[in-house]
Amino acid sequence: MAFQASTLRQKLNQGEYSNAADALLRWIKAKGGMKLQGLVRRRTLERSLFLSEIATAAVIISSA
């Protein structure tokens, strides 16, 4: 699987959450390598949510 060797997974495992959020923006292509504008919008929104205080609190709670 692509995720297993991804920068996104590596950054998450290293606790580099800001860099992991940036790595989300790389996941914007469909099969065949075609960039999809819908995925660009979705990943941008997911990045914002990931960096929000709510998401940060969830990470803190889950690692307690």
From TrEMBL:
Pfam families linked to this entry? Phage_lysozyme
Assigned keywords, A-Z: Antimicrobial, Bacteriolytic enzyme, Glycosidase, Hydrolase
> Is Hydrolase one of the keywords UniProt gives this record?
yes
Any GO BP annotation: cell wall macromolecule catabolic process
Has the keyword Transmembrane been applied to this entry? no
The UniProt record lists the EC number as 3.2.1.17
Q: Which InterPro entries match?
A: Bacteriophage_GH24, Glyco_hydro_24, Lysozyme-like_dom_sf, Lysozyme_dom_sf
Can you tell which superkingdom this protein's organism belongs to? Bacteria
* Catalytic activity reported: Hydrolysis of (1->4)-beta-linkages between N-acetylmuramic acid and N-acetyl-D-glucosamine residues in a peptidoglycan and between N-acetyl-D-glucosamine residues in chitodextrins
Sample GO molecular function, one term: lysozyme activity
Enzymatic class: hydrolase
Q: Which family does it belong to?
A: Belongs to the glycosyl hydrolase 24 family.
Q: What name appears for this protein in its UniProt entry?
A: Lysozyme
Phylogenetic classification of the source organism? Bacteria, Pseudomonadati, Pseudomonadota, Alphaproteobacteria, Rickettsiales
